Amino acid sequence: MHPTDAGQAVPVAKTTSSKGAKADRPKKDKVWVCRGCCCGTRKKHPGIDHRELEKNARLGAERAGVKYEVTKCLGPCGQGNVVVVRTGGVVRWFRRMNDVPSTVALLEHVATGHGLPALLDRKLMRSRTGKKP
C-alpha cells in the first residue's frame, strides 16, 4: 500500500496465519525519499549535497528500524525535496527537505515517535496533491 493523504491512517495488510485465518496487522513504518524529475537534482536545487542528504536519511531510517525507499516523482515538484513518512499507521508528507538538520530531525522523530519539532512542523504538508510512491 502506498501513502495516502497527509495524516490519514493507512489500511492494514491482511495476512494468513498457519491456520488459514486472516489477521490484521498494521503496515510497517517506512520512509520514501523522492528522487524524480526535480527532487534530488542539482538542476532544481544547486548547491545542495543530495548524496549527503540521502546518506543521512538512509542511515537514520536504518537506526530507527524503518524501511527506506528511494522513489520516482511523488508529484508536488515545487515543494522538493519531498519525503513521505509512515509511522504508527499515519502518513505524513514533508516538503523542502533540503538540509541535513531537517533530515536528521525527521529521522529522530521517526525513531522516537515524539511530537514534531517546529523545524519539521513548518515543512509538514497539511494537504497534498502528489502521486503515490
State the main characteristics:
single chain, 133 residues, alpha+beta, Glutaredoxin, four-stranded mixed beta sheet, two-stranded antiparallel ribbon, 3 helices, 21% strand, globular, disordered N terminus
Describe the structure.
The chain is of the alpha+beta class and 133 residues long. 24% of the residues lie in helices and 21% in strands. It has a domain at 29-121: 3-Layer(aba) Sandwich (Glutaredoxin). It has helices at residues 50-64, 100-112, 118-121, and strands spanning 13-16, 22-25, 30-34, 67-71, 83-87, 90-94. The strands form 2 sheets. It has a 4-stranded mixed sheet, covered by helices on one side. Helix 1 runs parallel beside helix 2 (100-112). The longest helix is centred in the middle third of the chain and has 15 residues, at 50-64. The model is unreliable at 1-17 (pLDDT under 50).
Count up the helices.
3
Q: State the shape.
A: globular
Question: What is the CATH C-level name of one domain?
Answer: Alpha Beta
CATH superfamily of one domain: Glutaredoxin
Percent helix range: 10-25%
As for the CATH topology of one domain, it is Glutaredoxin
DSSP strand count: 6
Strand arrangement, major sheet: 4-3-5-6
Low-confidence stretches: 1-17
Order of H and E elements: EEEHEEEHH
Overall structural class, as computed from helix and strand content, comes to: alpha+beta
Distance between the termini: 9 Å
**CATH A-level architecture of one domain:** 3-Layer(aba) Sandwich
Radius of gyration: 15 Å
Mean pLDDT: 76
Lay out the secondary structure.
Blueprint: E1 13-16, E2 22-25, E3 30-34, H1 50-64, E4 67-71, E5 83-87, E6 90-94, H2 100-112, H3 118-121
Parallel strand pairs: 3-4
Antiparallel strand pairs: 1-2, 3-5, 5-6
